[in-house]
Amino acid sequence: MQYEIIGGNLPAVLCRLRAGEKIICQGGGMSWMDSTFSMETHTGGIGKIFGKAFTGESIFTNTYVAEADGEIAFASSFPGEIMAVQVDSGKSIIAQKSAFMAMEEGVDMSVHFQQKISGGFFGGEGFIMQKFTGNGIVFLEVDGAVKEYNLAKGEKKILDTGHLVMMEDTCSMSIERVKGIKNMLFGGEGLFNTVVTGPGKIFVQTMPISKMASLIGGLIPKNNN
To answer: Are 159 and 151 in contact (CB under 8 A)?
Structure first.
């Protein structure tokens, strides 16, 4: 498979597949394609159905098969970037549940539960995330711009709600209460921060869609009647 990411801050990824190659996306994830593709819809078994129900994603995935050489495209749903992440055997990646766009056939997607439940309920990144294993490329959607950090063993990065896009599975995630009553009540940062500890790479996004929604919601006039 060959691919090209286009569109600036309204991106799409164009995937060029040879005859017999396959690419997988969430139900409804395809934007446009050549007539050389056929589609197969799957649930992945009862275990994956329950896992997808927990993440809030569609319980169905669509596999697009290239009957002959052709192009298929997946467009971002929010201004930002698209990351093409290579997944290799022995190195898994963990991403926020809303980031997944598409993946090669050799990659497996499963539900990842944070070991510390409080990290999901209060940290803002989600108790339930998605884990990718196997071999191949995963395309992830980023809200805003993306920044990569390579954390050393024991090195920590403190993140505000929703800014974590992806981390290698060698990293761990927990939550930290904002110190000081005055800071908690008037600092505007909420009660908790997300703490990611290395070793491993992490990717953060500049404008989580949840934060954008909150900002827009605050500008909508309230009906007091």
So the answer is: no
